[in-house]
Design brief:
The protein is α/β, with parallel strands linked by helices. The chain has 21 helices and twelve strands. Helix 2 packs across helix 16, helix 4 crosses helix 6 and helix 9 crosses helix 13.
Length: 431
């Protein structure tokens, strides 16, 4: 498990396949629903340089992390949960959708089945796209082209009081925070969150009821994730209406939406200039913004380092060979691990090989938990649970045997698998 990292589409597009594979090995990548929709929307994009839209989307899907990635829950669903009193944890861990809590033979667990997004990325790599996806892509592009940020900017400007006129990104962010945290304005902040964050009108009565039952506290105290998202949107509106953020690119609204997911990772990486100006303002004390080209160079160097290793080392497969940077790494990847994973450079205690009986027991337990999950209708949405919450956590993934120039698993593991893709079951023992 490496540091958690959110990337945007601009960064993944800049990587070649081997660099993307290194990204997947070095970090626990948090895939936002926005990235999925942006990628799908390229099906309706006008193409150049002789590549079809299908080839562009397939290329992005091929580079999308699969080994240690997590698809985050949709931010508006989390906002509503937060406002209804189901506090969302914001500690750099992804909020996972569709987890299924189960109990088998007296042991508790939660099962995360392979996500719908992961299934879609697999299909897209093979050039298989549904008609619904093509229609959705066109609708999304039409909506983006019809988004008039100039009109929105003028509308906000016409309603502003003189004291609400920031002159910099920092002032816009400070003003947004002051609006949310104004003393004796708790109800007003709650109403503003419900309206500006475009939550269902019918939900407001339930939100107010839950808020009052919790003591009518400040929005920041009662629903911190909703407060964070409101701060992002208020900041954007203030910066947009005062010319700090340009209103000529409708995609600026999409770029800002990525910032709603900041609480669910330790690192945010992008090649987007708007992100470079805005993300650092909204990060917590233990979070980091990384310029995409800098991380790309570090991933390229790491790939060269592992490629230069002896053939017998590479024969064990990249999954085992490169689960962290080399302990003497002085590049950006090593620096980020130093900041987020303290002590990782110390010698590791050897992990004993599992006996065939132990391996069979783990797989058997996993199969029983998966079978129970297939019978259970209840789902759990929330952060990846701490180890003391469940006896087992099972995450189902499909990892290709070959990614770019890398063989992912040893010949022995490949031989033991009957399917084309290796099904990796992560069963975490929490004894």
């Amino acid at each position: 498990m490496g540091p958690t990292l959110i990337f945007d589409k601009s960064f993944l597009q800049s990587l070649n396949v081997d660099e993307a594979v290194m990204l997947d090995q070095m970090f626990c990548c948090v895939i936002t629903p926005l990235f999925f929709v942006e990628t799908m929307a390229d099906l309706a994009k006008d193409t150049t340089r002789g590549r079809t839209a299908e080839q562009i989307v397939g290329g992005l899907a091929e580079r999308t992390p699969v080994v240690r990635s997590y698809v985050n829950a949709y931010h508006q669903e989390l906002i509503l949960d937060d406002l209804l009193g189901n506090r969302i944890t914001m500690d750099g861990r992804p909020a996972l959708p569709e987890g299924i809590p189960v109990r088998v033979e007296g042991k508790t667990g939660v099962v995360y089945k392979k996500s719908h997004e992961a299934d879609a990325f697999e299909r897209w790599q093979r050039g298989r796209f549904s008609e619904v996806e093509r229609i959705t892509a066109q609708l999304w592009r039409d909506a983006l082209s019809n988004l008039d940020l100039t009109a929105i900017s003028k509308a906000y400007r016409s309603t502003m009081r003189r004291e609400f006129i920031p002159k910099s990104h920092e002032e816009a962010r400070a003003l947004a925070r002051n609006i949310i945290d104004s003393p004796n304005q708790n109800y007003r902040a709650l109403m503003l969150a419900h309206t500006l964050l475009e939550l269902p009108p019918a939900a407001f009565k339930d939100i107010v009821r839950a808020w009052r039952a919790a003591g009518a506290r400040s929005l920041r105290d009662y629903a911190p994730f909703a407060a964070h998202c409101l701060e992002v949107d208020l900041y954007f509106s203030l910066a947009l209406s005062n010319g700090i953020i340009g209103d000529r690119r409708a995609s600026n609204k999409i770029d800002i939406t990525y910032l709603h997911y900041l609480p669910f990772a330790q690192i945010f990486v992008s090649n987007d200039r708007l992100h470079r100006s805005t993300v650092p303002l909204l990060l917590g004390p233990n979070q980091h913004f990384v310029w995409g080209q800098d991380l790309k160079a570090s991933l390229c160097a790491l790939n060269a380092t592992f490629q230069a290793m002896p053939d017998e080392a590479k024969a064990m497969g990249l999954f085992k060979l490169a689960d962290r940077p080399p302990v003497d790494d002085t590049g950006l990847c090593g620096e980020l691990w130093d900041k987020c994973m303290q002590g990782w450079r110390k010698p590791r205690k050897p992990i004993p090989e599992l006996t065939p009986e132990q391996h069979a027991k783990i797989v058997g337990d996993g199969d029983r938990f998966r079978a129970a999950a297939n019978r259970g209708p209840t789902t759990y949405v929330g952060p990846l649970p701490p180890s003391n919450h469940f006896d087992n956590v099972l995450i189902e993934r499909a990892i290709p045997r070959q990614r770019g120039s890398w063989r992912m698993f040893s010949a022995e593991i490949e031989k033991s698998e009957d399917e084309l893709n290796v099904l990796r079951r992560e069963t975490t023992r929490l004894d």
